[in-house]
Amino acid sequence: MSNKLEVRLLGKFDVRRDGKSITIASRPAQSLFAYLILSAGTSHRREKLAGFLWPDSLEETARDNLRHALWRMRKALPSNPNAEFILADDLSVAFNASAEYSLDVAELEKLSESTSADELMAVLSEYHGELLPGFYDEWVVLEREHLNSIFEHKMARLMSLLQDERRWLDILDWGERWIKLGQKPEPAYRALMTAHAVKGDMSKVAATYERCVKSLREFGIEPSEQTKALYEDLKSGKEIPKTASLATKSAGKEAASNIPIPLTSFIGRQKELKEIAKLLSSSRLLTLTGPGGVGKTRLAIQSANDAIKKFKDGVFWVALVGLSDGNLIPQEIAQSLNVREVSNEPIIETLKTYLKPKDLLIILDNCEHLIRACAQYAEQLLAACPQLKILATSIEALGLFNETTWQVPSLPLPEMQGPLSLKELQEFASIELFDERAGKAKSGFALDERNASSIAQICRRLDGIPLAIELAAARIKVLSVDEIAARLDDRFSLLTAGSRTAIPRHQTLRATIDWSYDLLTEPERVLLRRLSVFAGGFTLKAAEAVCSQGMKRSDILDLLGRLVDKSFVIVEADSKISETHYRLLETIRQYALEKLMGTEEVREVRDQHLEFYLSMAEKSESNIFSNDSAAWFTQLDREIDNIRAAMEWSTNSGKAGAALQMAGSLVYFWFAHGPVGSEWHDRVQQALARSEGKERTLARAKALNGIGFMYWADIYPIDRHPELEEALSIGRELGDPWNTATALRNLGLLENIRGNYPEARALLEQSLLIWREMGPEGKTGSAWTLMFLGDVALNHYEAEWARSLFEETITILKELGDINFLAYSIRRLAQLAWREGDYQKAIALCKKSLNLNQEVGDPRGVMACLAGFGDIAVAQGKFERAARLMAAVETQLSAIGIRLLHIDKMEYDRNLAQLRAQYDEKSLTKFWAKGKSMSLDEAIAFALEKT
User: Fold this and answer.
1) I need a surface site. Which of 66, 126, 475, 563 has the fewest CB within 10 A?
2) For 639, how many CA atoms within 13 A lie in the half-sphere containing its CB?
3) Nearest to 398 by CA among 289, 241, 545
4) pLDDT digits (tens, 9 = 90+) for 599-624
5) What is the rounded distance in angstroms from the CA atom of residue 915 to the CA atom of residue 923?
6) According to the model, what pLDDT value does residue 495 have?
């Protein structure tokens, strides 16, 4: 039985499954359901949702209403084993876009300008009237208006296509449908008159015209001149044109327009069009901003088409791209409006007089190179003409009072984590754009299993910028998608195959960015070049430290703000970090980096970048296992690309010692965050190989100590005793207690792995003595060493000694605020508890350890806790539960690419062997398969729900 929901909101509220109606009892619950499904995939915070849907209620009442409506809605909806329809937690609510459902509104919105007449009829036949009739919420009214506009536009296009194809019977059918469902559509009457005339039935031509006149007079208006002229031509027996203009016009005065007709289809952007329509309804000046190639003009064209019916005096396009003199802007506007100059009167005054009574929209396209003049003339016209609205496109805002600016985003991109099916990939507009344009460039090309990964990579690396994606797709004529993806490091040479008819700056990617770059002042260009050394983003503090050579630090903020205004820099807010973060789109960063490489300052800027992130790494070391650990982990996670770039520069520029310092300071950060056995090790080995003469420095000793610790953490295939022995000898030679104590501790860890418990204990006790002699500076080292001594005692089955060591460790770690290893020590106490049969205590401790590991984002710790729950289940004889948990652990470890720590792995393997010995193979296989199918979140929920 299918679990797919069939939802119809056009002309009725109807929810069905398998043809059977589903009743959502109350109107508020219906309204909530409709709002959620219309914005499927968007997570809404509960307090905002409550205030939005119940704006006239007190906050507490609104939240109670939301809870009640949500309860009614979820009670009515069927359960779905594949994906729940409603995703809700304490903070937010969303309709699951991945669930199986169909929505008539979505089908209407998906229709493109390239859709055939038959395809249009198939979708439009499901349009049974306006959105949610009988609902009067403010949001419904706005959405209803937007969808009515889409319906009217699609019907007009259908009429035009049917007339082009001379399908007169279909016109008679669909013309009447439109009149029944539309808002007095003149194009429908004109199409019907033409169809009746072709069939020779002039009495019906006259009757249809009379129906049109009567219908429009109900609104107090007369038919347009176009409709009158058509009727007179048909009545007088003049030749019937093969193709009549059936463009959507407002009833009454004919709504003129000169909107450009693109040669390519419009893909995606439905949410953006809705947002622009809402903003345009409440603002008289709306400026679409964004970097070159992001699709501002194309989005403005589509928005203009959607807006035609809302302006009775028309929508007019003013292209400024070829204009070099701002003083000529009024002439360009006048030419678009077909307004003639009046002698002895400035053209701007003539425009004011003409536009003052008009309900009209002007689109000023490509304002950035004439920004001051555009702002000046827009301000004058808006002040003089109360019904005039202006939609502008520009790299930067016009900067006027009451101007609304809206940043045009790149096209949505698939996430890098995890493979996606072809169906899932096709839902991303960036993928759809490449697929469609490449199919036009090369007959037979299509997205498939073989090329999907490379196409996704191309779209991601091009930041979802439509122009760049189109230029890349054009290369499919001479290169495979794999070759295109491989050549994107030199994208400015690759992406040069634009349309010959496009404006010059859209014919190559470099020309697009050149246009924007040339509009910058020299100080703005200098800062942009320097910002290109940041990988993945930066803070203002970082920009001031790295980019201020020859500038005042106080000037950086102002220049950065101007680069944000001009769409070169993107602002990224993150509630987890108090500092604002900025970034360059990767394409712009590569362009700016190329400019920087051509200057003499490149080495100095890179050195400053290295110095800043080395300082951050060293500062993090003393804070990463403190009360501020979560904040530091979050910051380092965000800066990981800059850390990598700094290490690469130091390794390759004769400063390998700095790379070793960074690696040594960040070893525990890398340890706590996923697969540590490859990247960190490779970077350290490269730096060690390039450090001059293998100097016996503290930085080298620290890096070698890190290698030994990583061996313990991830079990490298090669024994790391030699590295630790060298670290120990350097520490002793240079009289450095930190490296000496660390090397002794790490050697003890390795002996513990080998099962040499007396030797491990002796080494760890030597380390502990040095840490304690260091006083307060050695407190963290003492705690860790006590903890690892506890591991030795645990492995040696000295339970009471182990317990006392872990409890002493926990006391110190709580004082230090070290959550990471606090979770580790608590897990060890849980291990003691389940070995002794105290399962409830073991479960409680495992939960506590799991919560701490989730708080700091330690995947290895999370997996060890899940393994712990499995170990407990084996000890309890709950073999079904154990099989599912242990299968989930193995599956997730493989997916993440990490291993359990040695002591956790020993306990897991012991319990797994016991499970296999005591549980029948058939049942084990059955429940093992169930565990393998669980996601990490599902496995965690399963581990917690039955404890």
Assistant:
1) 126
2) 26
3) 289
4) 899 999 999 999 999 999 999 888 87
5) 11
6) 67
